[in-house]
Amino acid sequence: MDKTVLILGASSVIGRLIVDKFLLSGWNVLAYCNINNPFVEKKYLLHNIKVVSLDLKNASSVEEHLANVNFLDVSSFINCAGKITPTKFSDCSYHSLIDVLAINVISPNLFIQKLLPIMKNNNFGRIVNFGSIGVDFGGGINNYAYSLSKHMLEFFPQEIRKAAKNN
């Protein structure tokens, strides 16, 4: 089986570094970006990379995409998607909170739902969610929604824990 990694948030600075690392290690990369696609440079044309633009904030786009995509060759998932909206807890609105949670938590969880049965069937899979050390200290005063979303990524339900026992 070829090694394929799906990287959510690939257009971020951290995401681009992760993409580069996997490409240099000979992996196939499925790079999910927002509207910004940094992988048009000539150096990426020589590698096995497929770039997908997807607005993780748009629920219907995410659900439609996941209903129509085939991830049978994906063995690893790295979620480094992250939206930061500088807002204090006391100033956070419903919409600003939902926007951040949709990108940082809800969409990545939907990807994991799609990938988990495939990984279980293959008896192999790796899932990595990028968090934030700030969560351990209550987050920054002006990034409540971001800190909350990264805290939520530390939770893995029993269904995923059970699947982890099978590699």
Describe the fold and architecture.
The protein is an alpha/beta fold. It has helices at residues 13-24, 42-45, 59-68, 94-122, 144-152, 158-164; strands spanning 4-8, 28-33, 49-53, 76-79, 126-129. Strands 3-2-1-4-5 form a five-stranded parallel sheet, with helices on both faces. α4 runs parallel beside α5. The chain is globular and about 50 Å long. The model has no long low-confidence stretch (mean pLDDT 90).
Residue runs with pLDDT of under 50 for 5 or more positions: none
Strand content: 5-15%
Number of distinct beta strands = 5
Number of helices: 6
Specify the biggest β-sheet.
5 strands, parallel
Mean pLDDT: 90
Share of helix, binned: 40-55%
Main sheet strand line-up: 3-2-1-4-5
Distance between the termini: 16 Å
Assembly level: single chain
Silhouette: globular
Supply Rg: 16 Å
Look at the helices and sheets and give the structural class.
alpha/beta
SSE string: EHEHEHEHEHH
